[in-house]
Amino acid sequence: MKRLLIVYFSLLGSLVLATKKNLIIDTDLFSDVDDAGALLLAATSPDVNLLAVNVNHPSSYSALAASAILAHYGKGDVPIGVTRPLTDDTFLDTWYFRLGEYASKVAYQFRGGKLRWGHAEEDAWGPVELYRKVLSEAADHSVTIVSIGFLDNLSALLNSTGDAHSPLPGRALLSRKVTELVVMGGAYPSGKRSWNFWGSPLSGPGAAAHVINSWGANTNTSDGDGTNTTTTTTTAAAATTTTSTTANTTVPQLTFLGNDVGVYSLAGERLAAEGPALDPVGMAYGWYGYERRARPAWDPLAVLYAVRGLEGQGKTGLFRVGDVCEVGCGFNVVDWEDGGNRWVCGGVVDGGGREGSRQECVGRNQRFLRLGVTDEEAAAEVDRLFLEGAWAAARGKLRVPGLVPSTPGTPVGPVTTMCYIQ
Ligand SMILES: [Ca+2]
């Protein structure tokens, strides 16, 4: 009997491991507090194997706050990268003069994890090297990347060349190891100046346009950005690996979560009010929110989608695939000048990425999401998981792995003035 039980629990353990999602989070963690909420969810979800966190805002406080948050929730061993050159900038709300700064406070008051206070430069990985190390060590097609900020780190990864971690160039390495990239940003079918697509202090709209416009494009001639990169072929037959330096060229799924998914799902107020007294993310929502601590849940919802996928779509699922194309597939195009975006439908279009190019949507593997529940239900689910994760960490309890069913609770108050810093 004892032996049977050992076998049973071994099998159970295998199943549990098999259901965990390998996540890498790429976050700005600076100008809006929902990034902190997203890290809370990723760090406390029993369904996540958090491989790394890359920070795409070049403030040392952003990196240190990520380290502090992960350490608080028991994930202090997760490696952290940050884009360079680092500054000691802190957030100042020059739009509304009502939003507070939280990153430096979290970084100092809850310091811990991989990065020592005052040593972000020495302790943090370069984001490209961290990507390359973690991806090279992962099983093929086993990693989900969640981009909840600017796309500079991902753009740099795509431009990277072989190194000690892998002989593959960046795009080929990503195509081999990543199964899905989830990008919070844009509006669908079209929008202007989505923060994550134009607000990068390092590149403006350039990084977002590079990553998105070149995703799964026919790159026999160019990426659509004028830069020649690895040729990607979208046919399954061509996906066979022939040498150690040849990529499995399957194009990973690229899923967008736009402004509408989360803008009216206000979360964080309950965590700040009902969570543990010394919870870094609950306090961050308090510091950030001025008179209201609930914020649009863009980034936490992006993490939730990355973990759950389209589970329960059409029934109880939080998300469904958006559809604006009458025929065939579509893909996203980001304007290189202003970061606006538009969803292009159809089989073949002219000038999809840049003038003069002909680009197909087939094989680009892109889609965008809509909420499958009400805004209030989505917010309630985020709040519920915030509280569950924060209290579990505070009490030092282990949570039972397994997908947690949605149980929408009390909506978090009315919508008030909000801004579009994501
Ligand atoms: Ca963000």
Written overview of the protein:
33% of the residues lie in helices and 16% in strands. It is of the alpha/beta class and 422 residues long. The protein has one domain: Alpha-Beta Complex (Inosine-uridine Nucleoside N-ribohydrolase, Chain A), CATH 3.90.245. Strands 3-2-1-4-5-7-15-10 form an 8-stranded mixed β-sheet, sandwiched between helices. A 3-stranded antiparallel β-sheet has the order 6-12-11. Helix 2 runs antiparallel to helix 12, helix 2 runs parallel beside helix 13 and helix 4 runs antiparallel to helix 12. The protein is globular. 52% of the residues are buried. About 17% of the residues have low confidence. The site of calcium ion has 8 residues, from loops.
Short summary:
The protein is an alpha/beta fold.
Give the quaternary arrangement of the chains.
single chain
Largest sheet: 8 strands, mixed
Describe the strand arrangement of the main beta sheet, using strand numbers. 3-2-1-4-5-7-15-10
Roughly how many Å apart are the termini? Answer: 54 Å
CATH superfamily heading: Ribonucleoside hydrolase-like
Gyration radius (Cα, Å) is 21 Å
Please write the CATH class name: Alpha Beta
Structural class: alpha/beta
E-strand count: 15
Q: Judging by the overall fold, what is the CATH architecture?
A: Alpha-Beta Complex
Estimated helix fraction: 25-40%
Number of domains: 1
Uncertain regions spanning at least 5 consecutive residues: 5-17, 219-247, 349-358, 400-419
